[in-house]
Amino acid sequence: MHVRKHLTAAAALLAAVWIGVAAASAGAAPSGPHLLFNGLTAASGSTVGPDGDLYVNDPINGAIVRVDPSTGHASTYADCLPRRLIPTGFSGGMDVAFIGNTAYALVTAVSDPALPPNPTAADGIYRIDGPHSCSLVADIGAWSATHLPTGFPIALVTGVQYAMQPWRGGFLVTDGHHNRVLRVGLDGSVSELKGFGDVVPTGLDVHGNTIYLAEAGRSSVDRRSGRSSRSTRIRERWQTLPPAPR
After folding, report:
1. Which of 13, 92, 224, 232 is the most buried (most CB within 10 A)?
2. Tens of pLDDT, residues 197-210
């Protein structure tokens, strides 16, 4: 079972919700959320690994934290990712996923020219080779900067990649700033699978040949109050993909 939540607050909430979902899936009646782990100042993206542990991005420290769901014990799984540049918002590690026993992390908003200089970082997918060793698999930021979409304002040419899902030996990746879904290969290839208007695609899941996509929606400003708001679609059935070639 692959469970993923995106947070801008503490990772403890994610862990608590996950524990309730796990209980329900095992056939037991959920008794409500329970605090499993509390220790991260920020978190974004998580997955359940092949070993059954919970893996959570810690973007401030450029790390992935591993949490034992039976004890709540947390340890650093890897600390080799680029760190968050923007104090608040979307930057650094955004998501984590496994293909087989290998972990991969999605990192965004660490290399755009509009951000503070960070010459050793790249926006893209990193393979976790060891506790202190990460390898850039695909430079999504460099590709995005040379394949800009049109029809809406762009502040970061490298985009803001939000979520990823394993798909056909690689990944599908949402870009909430460039409003599209990308197909990313482990060979470093990047291509646009589907582009949208200014809908801000965020969460992503794949079931069979169907992609489910969450959209944060474009922002609007109330002229009287000056407050901005977004119209959010929680879950949208996007399209049915052709079967994988045999």
Report:
1. 92
2. 888 999 999 888 88
**b/e burial code for range 208-227 (CB count within 10 A of at least 16 → b):** eeebebbbbeeeeeeeeeee
Token code pair at residue 228: 């901005």
Which among 136, 42, 134, 121 is positioned nearest to 82, based on CA atoms?
121
Residue 167 Ramachandran class (φ > 0 left, ψ -120 to 50 alpha, else beta): beta
Asked if 91 and 108 count as a contact pair (C-beta separation under 8 A), the reply is yes
In this structure, the dihedral spanned by the alpha carbons of residues 184, 186, 188 and 192, taken in order and rounded to 10 degrees, is: -10
Structure tokens at 192: 């646009």
Rounded Cα–Cα distance for residues 37 and 74 (Å):
7
Round to whole Å and give the CA distance between 66 and 159: 28
How far apart are alpha carbons 95 and 77 in whole angstroms? 14
Amino acid, single-letter form, for residue 178: H
pLDDT in tens, 26-64: 455 566 777 888 878 788 899 999 999 999 999 999 999
Name which of 176, 185, 156, 159 is nearest 218 in CA terms: 176
Angle CA 22–165–56, to nearest 5: 55
Distance from first CA to last CA of the chain, Å, rounded?
Answer: 25
Amino acid at 152: F
> SS3 of 14, please?
helix
Asked if residues 136 and 67 have their Cβ atoms less than 8 Å apart, the reply is no
Q: What is the pTM of this model?
A: 0.81
Strand 46-48 relative to strand 233-240, pairing: unpaired
